Amino acid sequence: MSKENLILEIENLVVNYELEAETVRAVNGISLSLEKGKIVGLVGETGAGKTTTALSILKLIPDPPGIIKNGNISVDGQDIIHASIEEMEVIRGKDVSMIFQDPMTSLNPVFTVGDQIAESIEIHEKISRNEAFKRAGEMLEMVGIPASRATEYPHQFSGGMKQRVVIAIALACNPKLIIADEPTTALDVTIQAQVLSLIKDLIEKNNASMLLITHDLGIVAEICDEVAVMYAGRIVEKGTLEDIFNNTKHPYTEGLFNSLPNIDDRNAILKPIKGLMPDPTNLPRGCSFAPRCDYCTDICEIQPENRMISHTHSVACSAYENPEFSIVRGSK
Amino acid sequence: MLRYILRRIFLMIFVVLGVSFVVFFVINLAPGDVLSKIAPEDATLEEVEALRVELGLDRPIMFRYLDYMKGFVKGDLGKSYITGDDVFKTYMAKLPATLKLAFASIFVSILISIPLGIMAAKNRGSWKDNVSMVAALLGLSMPNFWLGLLLILLFSLKLGWFPTGGAIGFKSLILPAITVGTGLAALLTRTVRSSMLEVIRQDYLRTARAKGVKEKIVINKHAFKNALIPTITIAGTQLTRVLGGAVITETIFAWPGVGRLILDAVYSRDVTMITGCIILKSITISIILLIVDLLYAAVDPRIRAQFAKGGK
């Protein structure tokens, strides 16, 4: 994979939230890359560090207390970590933009939606306010809202419509990379599919790439090309959709699949992953999933290394030191 | 919107009724009466009683109140017992000075508190925040008369930059406006700070930053417009308070405003003057409060929508 073909490259990213009394280790050395035109899903439970990773790419981690301790991020070859505030202001919204989780709180209640979309265009394309506003109307049409509603305020829109507006803001300047942070979590199930296919269509149309953050494996199966599974600030398994879904290797990924309800067998009992995610202020030594893992052995006291299963598929689990090892789901 | 304004104006009738009733009766309960002020010093008891009958002050208070309101409905607020001047004209003559002082003080207050409050909120917990909060505390605890005297001492007597009192030209406005304005700024700074702190952690600011909006604009435009409602509320309330007459400041600076007019009328038990002035004052305040409410609508589209529906 040549570097020119990468829109996003994260290497060994470490992000901490340094509070007075304790340090929250939110992201603990993740590496992730995203090819142009691809959609990569970042999957994990609440608190796994997904949003922190996403915000790091835009350098929008609330500081204080958040600090990027280590690592490299580059977007289309541009170094993000060492970029100045002014450079970041140019990158944000133009090269990389973000679709936020909660449309109810992501829009400013005292400005019209047209103004909120136009602002981004006005900043990055250096055109007049009127022209930008006209373009904002076109963006609204693109996400399926009549342009005439550009003069209305967020409170006049429903949740699904607000998320369409948020999407319009994110896509206003044709960014190369879109980070979608659980874009459908706050929406009704009936609207989720609509919004999702809208995002997918627009990404394809604009020839953009997307990092999709979600905890919903169904969404991943629907639109992602590749998947990275995150746990306690680390990526535990990474691969193509096929690798992850049909050749599951990590016990945590297996747990995620097992905890999905089975529609074919209504009598099946749900098998949630036992226990809770470790406290990020006090992570266990070695593999952080070990306390919840059915396959845990002494070897898990050591931090597992990334192991390549194939040239697309990698897993961070020490159990594979033993060539005989296989998880239940994988052996099915 | 028009319906809302008309309704508010209609409600003012009840405010006037209530205020006039309370003031009229309470003044009547106070010991002493206007006769002791206007009767000649050597008047006999009979002469005083004759004067009482002449002025109609011997009649039961209920009738006097009804008479007064009859006049009020016709637009006649009566004449001062002491000077014989028309109450309405006297009030209107003093109102401009009070308005001038009130708006100048609010202006000073806003000029200080908005930048200070925003800075404090932005740098929460830092020395900048602490310094501005201590300054605000100082402003809140410093009595107006004391600050006014200090300002006169320094700027009028020592430096001779401004007159010690009176209302002649712009120069004479500065010291009283600073005296009242800094007092108001203390509370307003705290209001701006706390409402900014409320807004500053909202998701929509992150959305703005993610669009590439400059931090300065994120704070001063996106955040501040949302923090404006509580700020307008407090500034509006303060304005009404100053309009009621900054009695102490007006006295110190010999400012010919409404506050002193009412105070003098109270001393001399000039019932028509007191009642008339307070009714007019309550009308002035009602109008200001109406304007403040309309300002909300100008700032916040959600409130505007409520007005349009005729609700609230």
From TrEMBL, chain A:
<dbReference type="InterPro" id="IPR017871">
    <property type="entry name" value="ABC_transporter-like_CS"/>
</dbReference>
<feature type="domain" description="ABC transporter">
    <location>
        <begin position="8"/>
        <end position="257"/>
    </location>
</feature>
<keyword id="KW-1003">Cell membrane</keyword>
<dbReference type="InterPro" id="IPR003593">
    <property type="entry name" value="AAA+_ATPase"/>
</dbReference>
<comment type="similarity">
    <text>Belongs to the ABC transporter superfamily.</text>
</comment>
<keyword id="KW-0067">ATP-binding</keyword>
<dbReference type="Pfam" id="PF08352">
    <property type="entry name" value="oligo_HPY"/>
</dbReference>
<dbReference type="InterPro" id="IPR050388">
    <property type="entry name" value="ABC_Ni/Peptide_Import"/>
</dbReference>
<dbReference type="InterPro" id="IPR003439">
    <property type="entry name" value="ABC_transporter-like_ATP-bd"/>
</dbReference>
<protein>
    <submittedName>
        <fullName>ABC transporter ATP-binding protein</fullName>
    </submittedName>
</protein>
<keyword id="KW-0813">Transport</keyword>
<dbReference type="InterPro" id="IPR027417">
    <property type="entry name" value="P-loop_NTPase"/>
</dbReference>
<keyword id="KW-0472">Membrane</keyword>
<dbReference type="InterPro" id="IPR013563">
    <property type="entry name" value="Oligopep_ABC_C"/>
</dbReference>
<dbReference type="Pfam" id="PF00005">
    <property type="entry name" value="ABC_tran"/>
</dbReference>
<dbReference type="GO" id="GO:0005524">
    <property type="term" value="F:ATP binding"/>
</dbReference>
<keyword id="KW-0547">Nucleotide-binding</keyword>
From TrEMBL, chain B:
<feature type="transmembrane region" description="Helical">
    <location>
        <begin position="278"/>
        <end position="299"/>
    </location>
</feature>
<dbReference type="Pfam" id="PF00528">
    <property type="entry name" value="BPD_transp_1"/>
</dbReference>
<keyword id="KW-1133">Transmembrane helix</keyword>
<protein>
    <submittedName>
        <fullName>ABC transporter permease</fullName>
    </submittedName>
</protein>
<dbReference type="InterPro" id="IPR000515">
    <property type="entry name" value="MetI-like"/>
</dbReference>
<dbReference type="Pfam" id="PF19300">
    <property type="entry name" value="BPD_transp_1_N"/>
</dbReference>
<feature type="transmembrane region" description="Helical">
    <location>
        <begin position="9"/>
        <end position="30"/>
    </location>
</feature>
<dbReference type="InterPro" id="IPR035906">
    <property type="entry name" value="MetI-like_sf"/>
</dbReference>
<dbReference type="InterPro" id="IPR045621">
    <property type="entry name" value="BPD_transp_1_N"/>
</dbReference>
<feature type="transmembrane region" description="Helical">
    <location>
        <begin position="101"/>
        <end position="121"/>
    </location>
</feature>
<keyword id="KW-1003">Cell membrane</keyword>
<feature type="transmembrane region" description="Helical">
    <location>
        <begin position="168"/>
        <end position="188"/>
    </location>
</feature>
<keyword id="KW-0472">Membrane</keyword>
<keyword id="KW-0813">Transport</keyword>
<keyword id="KW-0812">Transmembrane</keyword>
<feature type="domain" description="ABC transmembrane type-1">
    <location>
        <begin position="95"/>
        <end position="296"/>
    </location>
</feature>
<comment type="similarity">
    <text>Belongs to the binding-protein-dependent transport system permease family.</text>
</comment>
<feature type="transmembrane region" description="Helical">
    <location>
        <begin position="133"/>
        <end position="156"/>
    </location>
</feature>
